[in-house]
Each structure stands twice: as structure tokens, then as C-alpha cells.
Design brief:
Number of strands: 18
Structural class: alpha/beta
Number of helices: 15
CATH class of the largest domain: Alpha Beta
CATH topology of the largest domain: Spore Coat Polysaccharide Biosynthesis Protein SpsA, Chain A
Distance between the termini: 46 Å
Helix content: 25-40%
CATH superfamily of the largest domain: Spore Coat Polysaccharide Biosynthesis Protein SpsA, Chain A
Strand order of the largest sheet: 3-2-1-4-10-6-11-9
């Protein structure tokens, strides 16, 4: 079955991004007649709301949602606004976009050629040289800021680039992405764990991949992406804002709690997913607040030695971080008696099974002193711990090694496999 422009609603959340939003809007209405657009303004104070009300009078295909709280900091974020817009849309297909994305003349037409059930089609981004260069995008400076951008120059570059890459297709996924509305809803939309922003897309893409969606990125479907012109590079200050750093730290911790690792992708930006291991992590009394922050997200259960210092540490940690997560940190962080470790361990495993209907797979014991000694290197070991555990298990299996104990990270990590 084939689909056309009228089958799509372009969903664009925006907050205080008016000048970029104007470019995005112009690129859509100039190149795609009668396309459905829904713009959701999230606590904007820069004139966006007034501009939207005027445009709504001019365009019957424009839908507007304005979230205008008394406190401008009380925003829904990209998580809440995307999902609200998608639910309110009335078309079979939704195109999730950003306010700082400008569309070419052929972008959406060429994306539509590949859409089918259980498929997500992403445009190929042209970006200025601001981020790490991977193989999923084209680096070409057509303007660092909105006032440096010229449509004619962009369209000329689009035409040349389509000729160069007309048959190239890769399997990356990033905004703008096109899929069936119902399939998005069926998978549960964005996870509110990542509200208001950051890592919400990585989490969604991993769930899509687990559910066997195909990712298609045609290189003849081009957009210009200024990148990060919302919270991250607010007011065109091309450095990470304090607001963004705070939400990114929060969402990264929640991503690790959910998936056991930081997001991992191919160079084409396709998710790479490794098994999730349910882990009890034993920490010693050399830890402090900062090292607990490093380790806590990676464990299903965190065991601290039972003493007054660790009790105080747990209480301070929960007071600071419980508000940032849906995970129950009071249950997650427990205490152990050095003389009763095995007995207590059996109790913890049984309680975990009862609460989550899952088995504990790994007992991980951390030598904090050794970890801190080699901290820079071992943070990498920690970030990719599920990947390393997977590799160790595969090594044991492939070489018929019967031991269920392993050590890695220069003696920082000792692993006991319960389910080899």
C-alpha cells in the first residue's frame, strides 16, 4: 500500500525556539501542500504562542497545542509533548520532528517510499560541525544559527547530495522519524521515566528494535539540523546548559537502571542491545557519595556494609536522587553483615524474585580502593559492564570453562555467575 502527504502529521514540540521554528514551518508549507502539522509549545515565553495563534488562522492544516503554566519551569518536556501530539493526531502516520529541523524539497516524499508496517524511516541529517562525526549524517555547514541559514543554498546542496547518494540506504534511526501512529502507541510511546528529556529516544529505539522493527535511513531524504537548539544550546549558546546537564545526568542514570548500560549504537546509529543482567553489587566501606552515584544505577540491588556511616550515606543519597527516578531506591539499597553474607544473599535473592518475578544473574563485588586507583580506565569498564559480562560469559561458554567466577578491570570487579 502506498501513502501520501495527507496521511502524515508532522509533530513538532518547541520551547523558546521561535526563530528556528519559523524556518522549520516554512520548509514544510512551502514544499508539501496541505501537509498536516501539529506544533506543541511547551512553556514558551519568546513569542512562540502568539506567532502560533496567528499561523493557525492562516493554515487549516496547522494544529496548535500550548502548554502555558504559571511557572515557565513547569514544562512537560519533549517526552510529554511528543506523546500528547501523537495521541491527538488524526492520521495513520506520524513524523516526529524537532523545531530546529529544516526539510528539503524531496525529504518527506522520499521517506514515504519506504514506509510499511513494523518499519521506522529516518531522514538523513545534514549538520554543522558541532558534534562527534559518525557515519549516519553529513557534516556541512549551512549555518550555525538561524540568521546564517539560506533556503536557496540548502536546496541547491540538497539537489547535489541526492544525486550523490540517491541509492544509499543505511539502518540508523534519529529524528525526524516516520512510523505508523498505532504502532507507536502499541509500543507504549515514550517512557515517562525520561521526562522531561534526554535518552527518551534511545530508550524508544531500543524497544522498537527488540520488537523487531526495521530501521531504514534513505540518503535521498535530507534535512538540515541545527542540533540541540532547545534546552541544550539554549539561546544559541553553543555549550551545554546547566539545565540540560542536570536532566541528561538524571536520564542517563535512569537509562542505566533500566537497560544496565549506557546507550550503545553502531556508527550508523542503530541500537546495539546486550542482555540485561540482574545484579547484586557488593560495595565496601571505602565508598563515598560520589562512588555510590557511579555504581548505584548499574545494580538491581546495591549492598552496603552495615554501619552508621553507610546508613547515613544511604539516607543522604535517597534524599538527593529519589525524586529523579521511578525506581525505589530505598528497596534497592540494602545492607549486609560481613559474617552473614551468604545467608543474607539467599534472602535478598528470594525477595527480589518475589517482587520483580526475575532471578538474580550476577553477584558483583567491587574493590573500591582498586577502582579509585584506576578510576579513569575503570569507569569505561563500568559504563559497558553488561557488554563485558556478555563477552566473559561467551568466552567461558566457547572455551568450555567450568568456573563461574571472573575478575576484570585490574582487580576492581569480581563476578560470580549464578546462571551460566
Amino acid at each position: 500500500m502506498t501513502y501520501n502527504i495527507k496521511d502524515i502529521t508532522v509533530i513538532i514540540p518547541s520551547r523558546n525556539n521561535l526563530e528556528y521554528l519559523k524556518l522549520a514551518y516554512k520548509s514544510l508549507i512551502d514544499n508539501y501542500k496541505n501537509i498536516n502539522i501539529m506544533i506543541l509549545s511547551d512553556a514558551s515565553t519568546d513569542g512562540t504562542n502568539e506567532w502560533l495563534e496567528e499561523k493557525k488562522k492562516e493554515n487549516n492544516n496547522l494544529s496548535v497545542v500550548i502548554h502555558n503554566p504559571k511557572d515557565p519551569n513547569d514544562r512537560k518536556g519533549i517526552v510529554g509533548m511528543f506523546d500528547l501530539g501523537i495521541k491527538q493526531s488524526n492520521t495513520k502516520l506520524i513524523l516526529a520532528s524537532h523545531a530546529d529541523i529544516v526539510y528539503g524539497k524531496q525529504t518527506i516524499h522520499n521517506m514515504l517510499k519506504y514506509i510499511k508496517e513494523k518499519t521506522v524511516v529516518s531522514a538523513t541529517r545534514i549538520e554543522p560541525p558541532l558534534h562527534v562525526v559518525n557515519k549516519e549524517k553529513i557534516i556541512h555547514n549551512l549555518g550555525m544559527t538561524y540568521n546564517q541559514f539560506d533556503f536557496d543554498t540548502f536546496y541547491e546542496y540538497e539537489e547535489k547530495t541526492i544525486t550523490k547518494y540517491k541509492s544509499k540506504i543505511t539502518d540508523g534511526i534519529f529524528a525526524p522519524w516516520l512510523m505508523f501512529k498505532q504502532e507507536f502507541l502499541d509500543i507504549g510511546g515514550h517512557d515517562e521515566l525520561f521526562a522531561p528529556q534526554s535518552k527518551e529516544d534511545s530508550d524508544l529505539f531500543q524497544r522498537l528494535m527488540i520488537n523487531k522493527f526495521e530501521f531504514i535511513q534513505p540518503w535521498n531524504a535530507l534535512v538540515y539540523h541545527f542540533t540541540s537548539r532547545g534546552s541544550r544550546f539554549a539561546n544559541d549558546n553553543l555549550t551545554n546548559s546547566d539545565e540540560w546537564k542536570k536532566t541528561d545526568e538524571k536520564s542517563t542514570a535512569n537509562f542505566i537502571r533500566k537497560w544496565g548500560t549506557v546507550p550503545i549504537t553502531t556508527k550508523q546509529l542503530k541500537p546495539v542491545i546486550f542482555p540485561i543482567y540482574n545484579k547484586i553489587i557488593y560495595l565496601d566501606d571505602k565508598i563515598n557519595f560520589q562512588t555510590l552515584r557511579l555504581f548505584e544505577p548499574y545494580g538491581s540491588i546495591i549492598m552496603l556494609p552495615y554501619n552508621e556511616k553507610m546508613i547515613q550515606l544511604k539516607n543522604e543519597y535517597i534524599e538527593k536522587y529519589q525524586k529523579d527516578t521511578l525506581f525505589d531506591l530505598d528497596y534497592k539499597i540494602m545492607f549486609y553483615d560481613r559474617d552473614r553474607i551468604k545467608e543474607e544473599q539467599d534472602i535478598v535473592k528470594k525477595e527480589y524474585i518475589k517482587k520483580y518475578k526475575k532471578n538474580i544473574d550476577i553477584i558483583l563485588t567491587i574493590n573500591t580502593e582498586q577502582f579509585l586507583k584506576y578510576q579513569k580506565e575503570n569507569i569505561q569498564y563500568l559504563m559497558y559492564i553488561n557488554l563485558n559480562i556478555y563477552r566473559i560469559k561467551e568466552h567461558f561458554k566457547n572455551n568450555n570453562i567450568e568456573s563461574n567466577i571472573a575478575e576484570y578491570g585490574n582487580g576492581s570487579f569480581f563476578i560470580e555467575f549464578l546462571n551460566l
